[in-house]
Amino acid sequence: MPARQERNMKNIMTATVIALSTATLAQADGTELFQQLDANNDQAISLEEAQASEALVAQFEQLDANKDGLINAAEFTQLVKG
C-alpha cells in the first residue's frame, strides 16, 4: 500500500476511534468504559492501562487528582462529565 493511502487509512481509523470513544464517554456515567480500561480489575486505571485511550493519556496527570499514579472511578468521572 502506498504511503499516502496508508496515512489516509490511519487518519480514518483514528477518527473512527475518537468518534467511538466520544460516544462511549457520553454513555451514562462512563462506568462501562472505566471497567473496560481497568484491565486488571483493581478499580483504578494505571498509566499503562490508559494507553488504550489517547484522550485519557493526554489528560492522565490532570485527572489524577490525588497524584497516586492511578485514576480511580471518581477521578474518571471528571473526564466523562467534561
TrEMBL record:
| The keyword Signal is annotated on this UniProt entry | yes
In its keyword annotation, does this UniProt entry include Signal?
yes
Renumbered to this chain, the signal peptide range is 1-28
Q: Which UniProt keywords apply?
A: Signal
Q: Which residues form the EF-hand domain?
A: 51-82
The GO terms this record gives for MF are: calcium ion binding
Database matches in SUPFAM superfamilies: EF-hand
What Gene3D superfamilies does the annotation carry?
EF-hand
The UniProt entry, under InterPro entries, shows:
EF-hand-dom_pair, EF_Hand_1_Ca_BS, EF_hand_dom
Q: What is this protein called?
A: EF-hand domain-containing protein
Q: Which organism is it from?
A: Neptunomonas marina
Upper taxonomic classification of the species? Bacteria, Pseudomonadati, Pseudomonadota, Gammaproteobacteria, Oceanospirillales
